Structure formats: C-alpha cells, structure tokens
Amino acid sequence: MWKAKKFFNTESEKTLALMVDELHKFLGNIISKKKERFVAWEDLKDKDVSARIVRRAQGEQLDETFLVNTIVSFVLAGQDTICSALT
Which SUPFAM superfamilies does its entry note (predicted)? Predict the structure, then answer.
C-alpha cells in the first residue's frame, strides 16, 4: 500500500518527504559548521557524536550524504536505547 502512496505522492508521503529533506538540510548545516571549526582548529574536543563522526571522517573523502545518514542512524539508535532504559 505504501508504494502506491509514494508513487502518487499522497499527503502523508509528501509530508514525510518534506520532513526528511528538512532533517537532511539541518544535519548538513551542522556538519558543515563542524568541518569549518575543525579546519580552523577552533574546536578540538569531541563534545558530541556528530563531532566524533566529522573528526573521524576528516582524513577520508566521505561525502556529506554518508555523514548525514550516519548521524541519523546514531540518533535513531539512541532513541530506542533511551526509551528502553527509561521503562
């Protein structure tokens, strides 16, 4: 059923696509700022997961999409772990 909804771009699929695009833009912005700070040697401490991922990727030629998807995976995995721990 969801394939038909996606093909016809129904209301729920359109909303989902817009939200996913917004999330990717937001995380892309964060990654760009972190990269600039690392290049300028302003932020040398790993304060959060995104900083660790960007620092690890500095020596390699990884594209922005890979970094965004990695951060999304960490956020979603953390959500499940925290929910389980709280219950």
Answer: Cytochrome P450
